[in-house]
């Protein structure tokens, strides 16, 4: 009963934050107090609970470091013209029957390179939505294609905060997880390419507004130097360079391009890396953003959520729930239950990061007792809660990208990757266990 009351308090605080527009960090503090009280009623002292929470917090330190570096990258890629380069040449490649396919490819590419869904939706998504409006292409379909593309990278990029988070909380190797995600994501990608290919030819763009091209050329130099930060970020991890050093190389090269190619001054550049890049003029709403400060709330959410993990593990507060889930996994299978738990936590907490950590806390023990590896737990999380977040209409992962693109929830059913991935992966696990031979 104490656990149920704690969850009710936590959920109420979460709903209040969503309705009132306050940061989720407040709800997490309320939940931390509620779960700590439940642990104390179970006989644990305040000192023991603090030590448990601190133990869980240690797991978040690596994630915090990476998230701040990601904040630097998202600013530098704007100032160096890297995002502009891909958008500019993506638009140049557009032919009437390829508009939606190019939109999908570019969304996948940039979300993989940047590791962010919101950042790509707010830049590439906004630009291609404008092109769709002026070119007579369905805005709903265009937004759905972007939603599919941005979650390709949000799930599977080595610099994605969600991928780093899952690797950290499951104590698995990030690059190993990324390779498995690529392998298990191929069937869903094939479905998306086939369906979006047909839709692209049957929904051609009539005209391409050239004013974007002119505006981008006026504001940025779109030379090949702009690609260097992206090459560092994508290629170096494949050459077995650590993710951290690959990210640092991307930042350093981006700073050099910003200074010597885009002719940006050093002090404004350093300020943009901290506070976020500011682009003046009509491109401002599209290209401004990023920076270390943009990651503060996410870092707070991850840090506080990590203390929950330590408390749950040390007090066994979730023991009763995990026992029921273990029995259910024995009947239905681990991944189908993971999908159910993912949807439940996403519907309740409305936040991808919190839902990911709650799913891990709830499912970790049933997976361990069933003999599943940590790698299987990590992959199941990536192929469920991370992408399913975009399907819940009131979850931040769904509402924010749609708000950027100014479309409604009618785009969600056409975002194929978000539900084809769990479906295809579930079939893969039934037919041929991806972990066989590891």
Relative helix content: over 70%
Q: Total strand count, please?
A: 0
The fraction of residues in strands falls at under 5%
Counted by DSSP, the helix tally is: 22
The CA-CA distance between the termini, in Å, is 42 Å
Structure classification: mainly alpha
Indicate the radius of gyration in whole angstroms: 22 Å
**Mean of pLDDT:** 87
Secondary-structure element order, as H and E?
HHHHHHHHHHHHHHHHHHHHHH
Description of the molecule:
Among the domains are: 43 residues; 230 residues, no CATH class. It contains 22 helices and no strands. The chain is globular, with a radius of gyration of 22 Å. The model has no long low-confidence stretch (mean pLDDT 87).
Q: What's this entry about, in short?
A:
This protein has 438 residues and is mainly alpha-helical. It contains 22 helices and no strands. α9 packs across α22 and α16 (319-332) crosses α17 (334-349).
